[in-house]
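Input chain follows. Return structure tokens only.
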Amino acid sequence: MQSLNTILYAHQSLLLIDASSQTIHLGWLQRGQPAQWSRIEQEAGTGLYALLEKIALSPNDAGAFAYCEGPGSILGIRTVAAALRTWTALTSRPIFSYRSLDLLVHTEGRPGATFIFDARRRSWHAVSIDAHGVAEPLQRIPEGQLPPGDLLMPQGFRTWTALPTPTPATVPYNPTRIAGDLTDTDLFSVSSDPDAFQPEPPSYARWSPQVHQAPPPKS
């Protein structure tokens, strides 16, 4: 894991994109310079490039890239991941990823709280903080099996699964904190193949080929 300051020390500049929620956040971060942030509520395929135009920035200017791999909007995250793969194929640069719920642990966390986000199929992504303030690893939990204590959800994230009872409280989701009080927090991992976060590898049905046979003759 690496911090923003460590990345900027090594690469001088970083283009950060977070499309995990309904609001797309874009940050242009340079070593020794004030951070520039812009955001838009728009579909990621057009919103991403609208933000680049708004901030008058080309991806070619970045020494490295970072993105939120989720949990969050699969479509938004994969749109960003596809753009990052294209940009780094043209000019090789490192890509770093962080997770939305890990960001919340550092900005809104408190002992005994659990941050959740819809994992569909009647389950939840969850990160719990123990009584000592230590965050447990992210896990996927079936509905009805969430741990006791305060349940918190990020604002601006869509849900499909019915909310648990009592209804979780919502907390702000603000990626700009990464360039504020979290500059020395180890949030980032190297991403060699950017994609949306999945708690387990996808499974596929196995197809067994069979030689085509003529139907039996009618009697």
